[in-house]
Specification:
Chain A is mainly α. Chain A has one domain. Chain A is built from four helices and one strand, in the order H-H-H-H-E. The longest helix of chain A is centred in the middle third of the chain and has 48 residues. The radius of gyration of chain A is 17 Å and the shape is flat. By secondary structure, chain B is mainly α. The chains are: A mainly alpha, B mainly alpha. The interface between A and B is medium-sized, with 24 and 30 residues.
Amino acid sequence: MKSFGYLIRTITCFLLLFATWNPTGYSYAAWLGTDDGSRLSVKIAVGVLLLALYAAYLRIAWVALRLPGILTAVTILYSGYLSLRHLGLLAADAPLWSSYLALVLAGLVLASGVCWSHFKRRISGQSHVLTPPP
Amino acid sequence: MMTTAGFIVRIIFAVLLVFGIYNPSGYSYYDWLVGDQGHWTIKLFGASVLAFLLFIHAQATWRSMKLVGILLVLSVVTSFGWVLWDFGVIDLSDPTTRSLGLLSTVAIVLGAGQSWSLVRYRLSGQVDSQNLIA
């Protein structure tokens, strides 16, 4: 898989998380709470679609990374965030930033989980297999 | 598919990684870590990235070659170093040369381990795989 594939997977992970909830008020969670005249069936159907996507993505990421991998990814990303904050590239005290931070961290961890098996196979030639298929 | 360039790039990356962590010139991650310069957040970020990369290399090496392969690579490198010493190319009584040789040996073992699954696949068609759901 080429670099573009990693980019696409990362973008879809971000889309999934930001579509579920984000601080701007335009998200699935915000839509659920408002009464804008859309039918309940539509809200439920979109919710089930999101749930199915989450089940697929989280299962893939969990199976590839497990707890040690997730902790490693969080350590690297969080210490990178602390470094950027120390260097002054990111404002530390903006209240909006903290929720974006959680979304971006979660999106990057999810994306690294989704891409990990491809990456590992390309770098070291060791394939991940699932037997029996889930 | 493994190419000669891919093999060389993996070896070079392992050499950069090992010599970046420590080398006798005094300009390495270790020297930066124990020195007074730099903030702890950036040092922590560097530590987590280097530990991740080193673990990836060690895991790929162990999975592709196990103890026997590592010992074989070590004996090839050691005997080659002996030849160089025998012909007077390197001077093993110099501590700098000794540590450079030791670091190069570690780097070559890690680079060869990272490449071996891909070399084996190209050579024989045998895929190295890891079962994620035991």
